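Lecture notes, part 5. Sequence design as translation. It can be helpful to think of inverse folding as translation between two languages: the language of shapes and the language of residues. The source text, in structure tokens, appears below.
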């Protein structure tokens, strides 16, 4: 198979058409740089959508993968294994949680969180307490349950009857939440910084009020930290900077630094509702994923890396400010740490994808978050030189769009 010609055309022949990938086919990466089939070099400001938190081929991750790869790859959950227990212990030590459930993705972590929230409420308060409240423009995964809890109907419509008793209100709108929450609410689900919805930070008093309302109505507060977790905002988890502790937290993306793994974290009292047989995952907690994730977690959970995220944020903000002073296309730069969004102004409404395409032409990988936001989610250890080079390419891309 290795001599087979792999082209973009092959995608259209053999892949389900739910994606429309770029022409570029990357074949190797190092740090925040990637090379394609023609050996062109790109700077990576996308990080596989906030996944490659230590860039490409970080030595700590490569060595964990190789070492565990020679030992054990998979055990069923009839057994447990050392890497899973070590990683769980470290996550419990570093967070509010007492208990961890491992799975393979953010969607699965959220699926587990929502099932647990319902189960816990029914166990403790009876069959009526099933309402889940989430936020418009929120994103929580692609399973039918998680995509319904997500607040973007374009992703959940067209698949028949949806799971019921799920309501949505506007993010940061406390009055709207107050109007709908009641003793029937089993959980309020929120991202502590909306990612796909446009890189929107929560108001500090809003988050605190949500926590208080949950307490008042004996509802669980679920934080989806799939995109914000593992150092992305400059804290190990975003809740740590908000002065509010959730009851359930989900983590994935950066957790494995590129290897698929997800986790749901919660307290002992809440976890007790997932008794033997109530939920499971064939691959969840497998030794290979957990060994890589342990190396990623250990590497990120240091003062040097977490403080470095805040420093890198300032490199981006200064550079973007300088670009915008020249070209005046951004209304503001939103977000926190290394999850940043350049919000397009009136003149460039709906054109985020043009900036993404122009960046590719300049050998820079960026993201969008909706039609009006250009999103950056680079490696947490990206070098100053890589940021400077990437921003120089971004400036040329902006010039292309502005001058077209």
């Amino acid at each position: 198979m290795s001599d087979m010609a792999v082209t973009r055309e092959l995608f259209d022949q053999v892949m389900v058409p739910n994606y429309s990938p770029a022409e570029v086919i990357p074949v190797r990466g190092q740090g925040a740089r990637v090379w394609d089939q023609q050996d062109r070099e790109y700077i990576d400001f996308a990080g596989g959508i906030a996944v490659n938190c230590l860039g490409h081929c970080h030595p700590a991750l490569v060595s964990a993968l190789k070492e565990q790869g020679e030992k054990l790859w998979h055990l069923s959950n009839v057994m447990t294994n050392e890497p899973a227990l070590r990683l769980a212990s470290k996550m419990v030590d570093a967070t509010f949680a007492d208990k961890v459930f491992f799975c393979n993705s953010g969607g699965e972590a959220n699926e587990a969180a929502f099932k647990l929230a319902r189960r816990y409420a029914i166990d403790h308060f009876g069959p009526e307490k099933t309402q889940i409240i989430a936020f418009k423009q929120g994103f929580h995964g692609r399973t039918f349950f998680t995509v319904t809890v997500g607040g973007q109907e374009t992703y959940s419509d067209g698949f028949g009857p949806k799971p019921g008793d799920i309501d949505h209100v506007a993010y940061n709108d406390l009055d709207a939440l107050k109007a709908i929450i009641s003793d029937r609410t089993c959980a309020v689900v929120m991202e502590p910084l909306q990612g796909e919805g446009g890189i929107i930070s929560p108001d500090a008093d809003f988050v605190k009020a949500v926590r208080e309302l949950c307490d008042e109505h004996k509802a669980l507060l679920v934080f989806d930290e799939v995109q914000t977790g593992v150092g992305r905002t400059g804290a190990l988890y975003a809740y740590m900077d908000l002065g509010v502790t959730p009851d359930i937290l989900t983590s994935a993306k950066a957790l494995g630094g590129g290897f698929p793994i997800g986790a749901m974290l919660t307290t002992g009292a809440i976890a007790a509702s997932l008794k033997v047989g109530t939920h499971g995952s064939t691959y969840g907690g497998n030794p290979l994923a957990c060994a890589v994730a342990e190396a990623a977690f250990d590497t990120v959970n240091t003062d040097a890396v977490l403080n470095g995220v805040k420093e890198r944020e300032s490199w981006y903000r200064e550079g973007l400010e300088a670009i915008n002073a020249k070209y005046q296309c951004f209304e503001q730069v939103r977000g926190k740490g290394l999850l940043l969004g350049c919000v397009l102004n009136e003149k460039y409404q709906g054109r985020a994808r043009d900036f993404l395409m122009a960046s590719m032409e300049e050998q820079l990988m960026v993201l969008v978050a909706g039609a009006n936001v250009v999103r950056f989610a680079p490696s947490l250890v990206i070098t100053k030189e890589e940021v400077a080079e990437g921003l120089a390419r971004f400036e040329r891309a902006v010039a292309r769009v502005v001058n077209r």
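The translated text above is only one of many valid answers, since several sequences can fold into similar shapes. The chain has two domains: 8-57+303-403, 72-300.
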